[in-house]
Amino acid sequence: MKFTKIFGSLVALTTSALAFYTKEDPILEINPNNWQKEVIKSDQVVLAEFYAPWCGHCRNLAPQYKKAAEKLRGLAKVVAVNCDEDANKPICGQMGIQGFPTVKVFHPLSVDPTGNVRTKQTITDYQGPRSAKPIVDFVLGKVIDVVKKIRSAEEMDTFINDTTFTRAILFTNKMKTPVLFQSLALQYSKRILLGEVKDSVSDVVAKYNIEKFPSVVVFNKDTTEPIVYDGVMKHQGISEFFDKYAPPATEKIVLGEKPKPFDPKVAEITNDEELKKCIEGFGTCAIAVLAYEEEFEESVKQHEEEMKILETLKKNNHEKNGPFKFAWINGVVRGKQFARDFDLPDMFPSFLIINGKQKIFRVDRGAFDVEGITDFLKQVRNGRGRNFSYTKEPVLDIKKEAKKDEL
Ligand SMILES: *[C@@H]1O[C@H](CO)[C@@H](O)[C@H](O)[C@H]1NC(C)=O
Ligand SMILES: *[C@@H]1O[C@H](CO)[C@@H](O)[C@H](O)[C@H]1NC(C)=O
């Protein structure tokens, strides 16, 4: 008896030391494949813990973090990033994580004039006590209210008549918009427009035969017919109901700003300004330096093949939500100084990545084909291998215009 008991608790100890969070916890473990989608591009408020399994403070926080995650179920997304995992190191580096645990909240900052779309995600460090309640309060404080308040029959008509989007209305007798509805509005932002009607707007309540509060009604895109939700007023039921009418998350309707369609072409960098934009902007600039001489048939042919390789890489990167921006420089025309500065091999084509924010670069010494470069980019992305620093501002050769009176 005694023996089994001790044995049992020993097993429990070892497993909890190995796996911090399990599938049963409402906590999503982050890896490079889901980081962008689940955290950076999330419209919801995201609570994120950056931890290392060996860290004692992290182990102390774990039960409180789980408790907070339970309380936040349906109200915010809760994730954890194991920074000890090699693949996650670039994420933790990029987030500037210096100690464990670090708790951050990713949240929308404001709404655009249509009142429905978050314009910007911002990140706030949580510095409070490491226990569930203050963490939950902090996270809920970051849920902004983008629910459209409908105060009259006329406003209701305007809202319902615009059939370009799926719309949902909460009929409520509460003074404040419930936080669950606020977070649903963020979760479905750009997919369903959420509005709220108070019980005091009696003509609207009567028109839609609302008999109890809360009630949730959906108006599908292209119609003004109400569809009443008759399930439990909890996140899971309501979101399953919304999912039936919402366009898929991948086809978000963007109000105001139109999403740029994917452009498969890889652009040529022809001046210092474009070069600067690529290397200093968002993401990591990946540049092919090619030898392209349009007067030679052979060169034109080779160039077409090289561009095909780059376009394939760009497409793959796009599909995987990768961090790279692809461009090319014509090395024989304006890349000689650039090739010297970045220690490129004597022969073009060559390939390198440059990160202007960190002032680092790395040259691909492998084959110039899809497989070789993919391999190189994977290494860069996973933080394997070594980057080199540079100090001098990257520049292109200035092409001297031939004077009109010269041959
Ligand atoms: C909404 O549509 C109805 C029916 O087509 C119409 O009678 C009403 O005037 C419209 N109201 C607004 C505010 O657009
Ligand atoms: C090298 O730079 C890339 C791009 O900025 C970065 O993702 C990667 O983590 C870096 N690798 C190392 C080992 O620091």
Automatic annotation (TrEMBL):
Location(s) in or outside the cell: Endoplasmic reticulum lumen
Major location (coarse): endoplasmic reticulum
Pfam families: Thioredox_PDIA6_C, Thioredoxin
Reactions catalysed according to its record: Catalyzes the rearrangement of -S-S- bonds in proteins
Entry GO CC: endoplasmic reticulum lumen
Species per Swiss-Prot/TrEMBL record: Piromyces finnis
GO molecular function terms listed in the Swiss-Prot or TrEMBL record: protein disulfide isomerase activity; protein-disulfide reductase activity
Record keywords: Coiled coil, Disulfide bond, Isomerase, Redox-active center, Signal
Any single GO BP term: response to endoplasmic reticulum stress
Alphabetical list of PROSITE patterns matching this protein: THIOREDOXIN_1, THIOREDOXIN_2
Protein name: protein disulfide-isomerase
Coiled-coil intervals: 293-320
Enzyme class: isomerase
Keyword Disulfide bond set for record: yes
EC nos: 5.3.4.1
Residue ranges of every copy of the Thioredoxin domain listed in the record: 9-149
Record's signal peptide: 1-19
The keyword Isomerase is assigned to this record: yes
Top-level taxonomic group: Eukaryota
